[in-house]
Design goal:
WD repeat; 5-stranded antiparallel sheet; WD40/YVTN_repeat-like_dom_sf; mainly beta; WD40_PAC1; 460 residues; WD40_rpt; globular; 2 helices; single chain; 6-stranded antiparallel sheet; 36 strands
């Protein structure tokens, strides 16, 4: 791990600046007063996720369900400080490829990430959304709901999806860039009250209770925005996808999408919506105009298998869809060929938990603690390397492109969040040669052999 003890002075979040009495949600700044850090429970509430209970999943392929994956007794000495961050000096050397540093907080497992420019947002099972600027602690905001399962950015707004089935909306203060205010909750209280007036608006949940159709009655697993930023999509373990109008937070639609928990949704090329579920399927939904609004219709099932679908990613520039599943495989389809199946990427020994695509690179994070870097060249895929450094399953990824270098070499900053309670920062070049990249230890060493990574390419 590229860290040094006491490389930065101890810092902690200071006094609460603003609170909402109804939901006990806060926005807060960094202060330099000392504060005692409290360890989270040994077993987070997310361990009771559908991955552990659904008969359609291979639970043996998901070791992150085991409490032994709580690495609190094995964390770096840096974690004794409430906040620790360390980035190697070579972070400013654009020829360097590998691990740049780590962000560590003895606070909770990292479940969600979102990056924009020099800002990084991290969500965990601690109720907090932390904000990092230039890889250093900057600000944060919190909700009383607990686990933060999804974060998505849209202009000046930040949407967060939570374990309690609600979506919170946040916005940075115009007077103080380190202060974030909660400006709404989806569904809104007024919409909830109005909808609850009609008995026909109630649906029966699996717990033999009734609830209004505009509200998720189980954990939100992921969020996605339409290409024009007008629609927000939320998916849940309640098997549904809900469509929200971003301008006024109105719930326009509730799609009964799958027979089990929806684990991932992503808006793709040509306005299509893709959904992946614990029922082992990947489905396509098309948006059509209907009167003054729009409605989504089922188009086709791309994949049907025994293993749970755990992650989806789209490369809109080249019309590729990638799908990770609990058996560790990554399937992909080519959109310019009517979404024909292109092949399978085999790089992980355990469940693939997250995916990200940027340029011609694809990143897959897994319960085996590793991140595979794949390069697409035409229709072919090559496993460039395996990023090793986490001591727990890699749960989420975010990628930002750096300024293009001479010779057309694109550099990407990759953030990986893990159940080891850390976020690691990597610099990856699109011009990497397989097995010859440098890993992020200090001093840099060669990457582990990627002989275990294979591509099963479908030949035409």
């Amino acid at each position: 791990m590229a860290t040094e003890e006491n490389s930065h002075p101890k810092q902690a979040f200071g006094n609460v600046l603003q609170s909402d009495r109804n939901e006990d949600e806060y926005s807060f700044r960094i202060s330099h007063t000392s504060e005692t850090s409290h360890l989270p429970p040994r077993l987070s509430s997310d361990y009771s996720s559908p991955l552990a209970t659904s008969p359609t999943r291979d639970s043996s392929a998901s070791p992150y369900l085991d409490p032994s994956w709580d690495q609190s007794h094995q964390t770096s000495p840096l974690s004794r400080s409430p906040w620790t961050s360390h980035v190697e000096n070579n972070s400013t050397n654009y020829s360097y490829t590998g691990l740049m540093g780590s962000l560590v907080r003895e606070e909770g497992h990292i479940y969600s990430l979102a990056a924009s420019g020099d800002l990084l947002y991290t969500g965990s099972d601690s109720k907090n959304i932390r904000v990092w600027k230039n890889h250093k602690e900057f600000s944060g905001f919190k909700s009383n709901s607990g686990l933060v399962k999804a974060i998505i950015l849209s202009g000046e707004r930040i949407f967060t999806g939570h374990q309690d089935g609600k979506i919170r909306v946040w916005k940075v203060s115009g007077k103080d860039p380190s202060l974030y205010n909660r400006i709404g909750t989806l569904p809104t209280l007024m919409a909830y009250i109005k909808t609850s007036m009609k008995p026909s608006n109630y649906i029966q949940t699996r717990r033999n209770r009734n609830t209004v159709w505009i509200k998720h009655f189980d954990a939100i697993s992921c969020l996605s925005m339409s290409e024009d930023q007008k629609l927000l999509y939320s998916a849940s373990w309640d098997k549904t996808i809900k469509v929200w109008r971003a301008s006024d937070s109105k719930c326009l639609e509730s799609i009964k999408a799958h027979d089990d928990a929806v684990n991932s949704i992503v808006v793709g090329f040509n306005g299509l919506l893709f959904s992946g579920s614990a029922d082992g399927t990947v489905k396509i939904w098309r948006k059509e105009s209907q009167g003054k609004g729009t409605k989504h219709f089922f188009s086709q099932t791309l994949l049907k298998q025994e293993c749970a679908v755990t992650a989806l990613a789209v490369d809109p520039s080249s019309n590729y869809l990638y799908c990770g599943s609990s058996d560790g495989l990554v399937n992909f389809w080519q959109g310019d060929k009517l979404l024909s199946h292109g092949g399978v990427l085999r790089g992980h020994k355990l469940a693939t938990l997250c995916l990200a695509a940027a340029g011609n690179l694809i990143f897959s994070g897994s319960a085996d603690n590793n991140i595979c870097v794949w390069k697409r060249d035409g229709g072919e895929h090559i496993c460039l390397s395996v990023l090793s450094g986490h001591s727990g399953p890699v749960k989420c990824l975010a990628v930002e492109e750096e300024q293009e270098q001479k010779g057309g070499d694109k550099q990407f900053i990759v953030y990986s969040g893990s159940l080891d309670k850390s976020v690691k920062i990597w610099r990856i070049s699109s011009q990497l040669v397989p097995n010859q990249a440098e890993v992020g230890t200090s001093p840099p060493q060669n990457f582990p052999s990627s002989n275990s990574c294979r591509v099963s390419q479908r030949r035409k």
